[in-house]
Amino acid sequence: MQGLDIYGLFLIMLILFLISxxxxxxxxxxxxxxxxxETKTLLKCPQCNYTEERKFQIGDxxxxxxxxxxxxxxxxxxxxxxxxxxVPQK
Length: 90
Hints:
By secondary structure, this protein is of the alpha+beta class. It has one helix at residues 2-31; strands at 37-44, 51-55, 65-68, 75-85.
C-alpha cells in the first residue's frame, strides 16, 4: 500500500511540474513582442545620384526603371529593396 502512495505522490509532483512549466512558457510568450518590419524601396538616379525612398510595391525589383528624376529628368531605377524595423510608439 505504501508503494502506491509513493507513486501517486510522484505522479502529482510530475503533473504540477508540467503545469508550472506550461504556465511559465505562456507568460514568456506574452511578454516577448514580435519585431515588425516594413519593406522599403530606394530609387536612385544613375546620372545625378538623386535618391528617393518609398514603400515597397508588388512587382518591384532591383534595376527596374521607374519615374523621371525631378532634378535632371533621367529615368530613375530601383537601387535597393530592404526592410526597416518598426519601432512602436509609447
